[in-house]
Amino acid sequence: MSASFTARAALRTYSAPAMTVLLVYCAARRAYDPTMSDRVMTVGSVMINVRDLDKQTAFWGAVLGSDIAQEIPGQFVWFEPQHSGGVMVALQAVERATEGPRRLHLDAMVSDVASARDRIIELGGSHLDDREMGGFRWTVMADPEHNEFCISASH
Hints:
Helix content: 25-40%
Number of helices: 4
Radius of gyration: 16 Å
Strand content: 25-35%
Shape: globular
Largest sheet: 5 strands, mixed
């Protein structure tokens, strides 16, 4: 059985927990740009570079409420998608922390922002900022290696 088949099977069968990774950009672009009607690729995972793979695996597994779907020991970890059709969050071990502007982050929905913020901090993450724009509010968090991600109330 191929890794691709295994990932597709997992995507069809996993149920949604409280936190759901959002992929709004692709959906919005597809709605407004008719040239996007033919899919060129399908996102399989969102990769986060980490220095301490074991610590980050424990952190992200607990925050996402997901089990490990696949791993290459010491190098990569892929978590089960959170819901049918969902995208996997994955970790890649790197020697140095990513420097400069963050080019990728996760946007996630939670049922209770304050509870989620407190649990993330308890797991070793940190609260960076609370933001609002046009009536939309979100909280900027960071994992133990300062990779930023945002949480907001479920809509």
